[in-house]
Design a protein that fits this description.
Helices cover 5% and strands 45% of the residues. The protein starts with a helix and ends with a strand.
Length: 201
Amino acid sequence: MALKQLIRLGLIGLAMSVATTVGVNVPTLAQQDIYDSDGLNIIGGVESRYRLSYSLDNNSPRNTRASYLLEVKGDKVDSAVSALIVTVPEAFSRYRGRIDLDRIKVRYGRIGNVGEEIAIEEVLWDDRVFSGANDLSEDLDKLEIYLAEDIPANTSFVIDFEKVRNPNRALMQRVNLQVVPRGEELATYIGTWEMLIAYQD
């Protein structure tokens, strides 16, 4: 598929070098298994209009049953979407975090009101990401989700990562989302999930 090849060659250039990862030794913030947020408000963080909501379940270090619900509100989706590009700081993999590509789902709706599943054509993982210069960044990993059917404009959806293997240590991760609009070859930045991953004892 031409679109996949163009994306893989880096023509969706990420001006996302701000997506740095900071490892943090965070004390237990809660004793519950579920953590919900509209995005962290941290100094030097993402502008509020680009912060995306999420929910984490079983969010402890090395937990192999963690799940991430990553929400995108309909007002962020200006046109029909045929592919989703998620970039993850490479520290996630370096500290032995793992996303099961076979357990990724995309669903209509919002967190707490997740609806019908959206068919996925293919999911690819690429640990070489074009940084916007003439080199491939070692700081980001890229997850490409190609949809079998377009997500209509102005439609809320949730990316559901099931059975995630959390990293060995607590990390503050800025996970970015770009979408490929229907008929386009270049991706558009939508927003960022600022997440404390694996912070519970």
